[in-house]
Amino acid sequence: MKTEKGSLEAAMRMARRCEHPHCFACGEPVSGGLGLSFELDREGEVVADWIPPASMESYPGILHGGIIATLLDSAMVQVLFAAGIVARTGDLHIRFRMPVLTLSPVQVRAGLRDQRPPLFRLEAVLWQKGIRCAYAEAKFMSTSEIIKEW
Questions:
Q1: How many CB atoms lie within 10 A of CB 40?
Q2: Is the dihedral of CA 58, 132, 81, 8 positive or negative?
Q3: Around 95, how many Cα atoms within 13 Å sit in the side-chain half-sphere?
Q4: pLDDT-wise least confident of 28-32, 77-81, 93-97, 101-105
Q5: Least confident of 14-18, 49-53, 129-133, 140-144
Q6: Cα separations (Å) of 3 from 77, 84, 129?
Q7: Domains of the chain in sequence order
Q8: What is the DSSP letter of 16?
Q9: Among 45, 73, 77, 129, fewest CB within 10 Å belongs to which?
Q10: DSSP alpha helix (H) spans, 57-110
Q11: Predicted pLDDT of residue 35
């Protein structure tokens, strides 16, 4: 299992380098990125822990909703990368349940729920202090299909 997890994480890193060399979510904070680092857990989901800086707030002490959307969407993309799939977000639905505090650790988790290539359905959840603060469902389409239609 360790070899399989290692190869999945290697696929995720390779796709990130090739497909997202200037990714806002994964980019380093010194160059304007969020600095997210995604890993695979035992269930095959992608997980990232992060501390939202005060500079990303909308209301005092509250993380901006656009940043929350970015966290959820980016986690789902990483799930596809780990599976060797390059796809783009086609439909994204987010439910904001609780405010997300800045300067307090969060965890974002995502997993693949259904696949009917070229379409993939994923889900992601953002947790803070054991509370499910935001939830997203999305449909992604593989890049090769997008290029054909373009």
A1: 18
A2: positive
A3: 9
A4: 28-32
A5: 14-18
A6: 22, 16, 32
A7: 2-149 (3.10.129.10)
A8: H
A9: 129
A10: 65-82
A11: 85
